[in-house]
Amino acid sequence: MSPYLLLRRLLGFSLVLLLTILPCNVANAVLNVGDEVPNYVRSQITGIDLHGQDLSKSSIAGATARDSNLSDVDLHGTVVTLADLKGSNLNGIDLTDTLSDRVNFQKTDLRNAVLVNMIASGSSFAGAQIEGADFSYAVLDSDDQKNLCEIAEGVNPVTGIETRVSLECSDRGVGYKPAMPGD
User: Fold this and answer.
1) Are 166 and 134 in contact (CB under 8 A)?
2) Sign of the CA dihedral running 100, 102, 111, 150
3) 37 within some domain
4) How far out from the chain centre does Cα 62 lie?
5) The domain containing residue 152 runs over which residues?
6) What is the pTM of this model?
7) Residue 106: is it exposed, middle or buried by C-beta count within 10 angstroms (0-12/13-18/19+)?
8) Which residues contact 46 (CB under 8 A, 6 or more apart)?
9) Secondary structure of the chain in HEC code, one letter for each residue
10) Predicted pLDDT of residue 57
């Protein structure tokens, strides 16, 4: 076999090998050895439909999931930090006990969502729909809390808590909001 043909075959084989072992950035979750749940860290999952799935204790940190359907998804105990969820359907999502700092929640549907004990400092909720959302003991920036109080209404169908009460809104402005239950 000629050296040219041998080199060509080796390069072709190397390319196939690289394509099979390199991670690709598609809309599928990565389930590594030992993982019990999918991992969407730094994934491009825009437009993905995960409706109703149990993704508790997984991670979507740094993921871009714009215009996605995450309605009725159980994400409690997850790491969502630095994710871009702009325009996504999060209706009925469970984000209890999540680290959701610096997340883009702009123009999301958070109606009937459970966001209890969520840490959402540095996140943006501009244009979000929050009717019936429960923010009890969530850590929010004071400006976000104030702006959310302006549109807060409804009762969460799961927890029975009024959105205004969970945000500790008052008729004369936003008061102190404790970070932990019992404070």
Assistant:
1) yes
2) positive
3) yes
4) 9
5) 27-183
6) 0.76
7) middle
8) 27, 64, 65, 66, 67, 68
9) CCHHHHHHHHHHHHHHHHHHHCCCCCCCCECCCCCCCCECCCCECCCCECCCCECCCCECCCCECCCCECCCCECCCCECCCCECCCCECCCCECCCCECCCCECCCCECCCCECCCCECCCCECCCCECCCCECCCCECCHHHHHHHHHHCCCECCCCCCEHHHHCCEECCEECCCCCCCCC
10) 78
CATH number (domain holding residue 53) = 2.160.20.80
Residue 8 lies in a domain: no
Lookup: tokens for 157? 């169908």
User: What tens digit of pLDDT does each residue of 128-179 get?
Assistant: 999 999 999 999 999 999 999 999 999 999 999 999 999 999 875 544 444 4
